[in-house]
């Protein structure tokens, strides 16, 4: 008898959920645009955990989930590259990275 | 080319000429008094000549009695509606053209003297020309719409002319009163016209005449309704009870205007309209009886008011109302001839009397009360003579014009079996003789008032009065019972019956007229009876008559309570419900804007939050209710 139950799908999903919520929380409350991007990374990683967990526990014979997570990582890297570039550009222009000041979208 | 034929073919020129004069005076001769009045008289005179030609043309072509001479052009048309403008010449129209142009020309000549030195001299002649144009256009109208257009123009001109002294409060009030009172009538008329258009698809007099009898057989109630609605217009325009109140006030305009309004234009328009639409009333007997009784009552009612009035023009105004009642009554009992005959003779002597009254007032610088005049005969022999002629004519003393026409009305009323109206009309004739001679005896005979220094009017005022006086004497001879091809032969509706002389009617009316004059002489001429004592003896009757049966006061009371009350109620509805709805809509939009602008903050995190919670919402719905309803919510799926 093991003292602890073997790690199952539920644990992975709980971890993913926790990670996703942390990322979401970060996105909602952080003022710094870079911190926002970091929050998004957390959420993407939460999704990756889910994808791989499902791959392993639901359809072990295929690689769909793993391939998908690699796609997500690639896209996330590209996104951060673009996002950081934007943030830097905005900083040069406005000398701020606080998203509260970045409300030009409504004009 | 033959002048009569030319006039017949070009009768549309008759209204056009005064209109040209109006335009010329209003825009070119504004500051040229002599030119303006000459233009007005010349153009109107030319219309008069053309009218003479039209009369001659009618006399040469007796077939025009049954088959009117129509020339028209299409004005506009659309599916189901075709409106034409043109000229409709038959003996009635010819007679009217003659009378209107004659009186208008005489009034214009007279005005050159009467309006001498008035600051609005050219304006006055411009209005007169427009007035003549409107009335003549109405006379030759080929359909009810054309007639209605000129009908409104006549109303406009009377408004302008009654309010000619616009700096005077009373004149402004009178003008407004005339306009609004007649407008009430016009509303009824317009409804009637719409009914006709809807039911017949045409407003042409000839086409209506063809279609009316069959329709009347099928829908007797509807045709009566239409008849009464159409008659409401003439009630307003021709000052019939109960819309007569504007007419006595219309004397606020200059005297020549009163002459024109009371004799040849405005008030006659109503009678003429009923005559034109006579086919309609002929097939609607109830409506026709309505006309007869309204007319008969108006005649009596107005005469009873005229008995005690003290202002000269007011007496004449009530006598006009009374005489118009006669004309309506004649139409109502079914005699087009008698009505039109009286219309013609009345135009002569009433215009004459208003001009004479104007002459007297002119000489006295506006003293209106006849009891302050007295003894004008010596200083103003011509005016006095003309007034006496007019009085004898309206009182119905043979062989003056009024006798023949009034007699014809009495005779026709009796012949058609309206004994009640016959008695009423005879009593009215007696009262007419009395109040008219009362005015003459008081104002022109008797003791001179030392405060007055009257002088006879210049020749340009005497001359037109002379012409009208001559016609007031002999004008009735065209319609005596002994005239074989006289007035009745030409102006008629349906089969022609040569009238015979009814000695009892004739004798009766003469006796009543002489009695009326005699009584007036006894009271005001010879002073056998003291008029003050008589007035106090008559008591309430005198008060009723002198205060015009309080009709104006009743209207005022109705105005204050009913109309003002309704207006207040409607105002409340307007402010709170109609405006409230609109304002509410605007406020709602503003509120929605204030709320919705919060979702457009430009803040990235707000958008993310909304996005996230929407996803949660969709997930919850999916979980609780299944896929389909969530798809319906976000707008996808089937």
UniProtKB/TrEMBL annotation, chain A:
Its EC number is 7.1.1.-. One of its GO terms (biological process) is ATP synthesis coupled electron transport. Its main location: membrane. It catalyses: a quinone + NADH + 5 H(+)(in) = a quinol + NAD(+) + 4 H(+)(out). GO terms for molecular function: NADH dehydrogenase (quinone) (non-electrogenic) activity; quinone binding. GO terms for cellular component: NADH dehydrogenase complex; plasma membrane. Keywords: Cell membrane, Membrane, NAD, Oxidoreductase, Quinone, Translocase, Transmembrane, Transmembrane helix, Transport. Gene3D superfamilies: 1.10.287.3510. It is a multi-pass membrane protein. It is an enzyme of class 7 (translocase). It is found in: Cell membrane; Membrane. InterPro entries: NADH_UbQ_OxRdtase_chain4L/K, NUOK/Mnh_C1-like. The chain crosses the membrane at residues 6-27, 34-54, 66-88. Belongs to the complex I subunit 4L family. NDH-1 is composed of 14 different subunits. Subunits NuoA, H, J, K, L, M, N constitute the membrane sector of the complex. NDH-1 shuttles electrons from NADH, via FMN and iron-sulfur (Fe-S) centers, to quinones in the respiratory chain. The immediate electron acceptor for the enzyme in this species is believed to be a menaquinone. Couples the redox reaction to proton translocation (for every two electrons transferred, four hydrogen ions are translocated across the cytoplasmic membrane), and thus conserves the redox energy in a proton gradient. HAMAP family: NDH1_NuoK (MF_01456). PANTHER family: NADH-UBIQUINONE OXIDOREDUCTASE CHAIN 4L (PTHR11434:SF16), NADH-UBIQUINONE OXIDOREDUCTASE SUBUNIT ND4L (PTHR11434). This is NADH-quinone oxidoreductase subunit K. It comes from Heliomicrobium undosum.
From TrEMBL, chain B:
GO terms for cellular component: endomembrane system; membrane. The chain crosses the membrane at residues 12-29, 41-59, 92-112, 124-142, 148-167, 187-205, 217-236, 257-278, 290-308, 315-341, 347-368, 380-401, 421-441, 462-483, 503-524, 607-625. GO terms for biological process: ATP synthesis coupled electron transport; electron transport coupled proton transport. Residues 141-432 form the NADH:quinone oxidoreductase/Mrp antiporter transmembrane domain. This is NADH-quinone oxidoreductase subunit L. Residues 75-125 form the NADH-Ubiquinone oxidoreductase (complex I) chain 5 N-terminal domain. InterPro entries: NADHpl_OxRdtase_5_subgr, ND/Mrp_TM, NU5C-like, Proton_antipo_N. It comes from Heliomicrobium undosum. One of its GO terms (molecular function) is NADH dehydrogenase activity. The gene is nuoL.
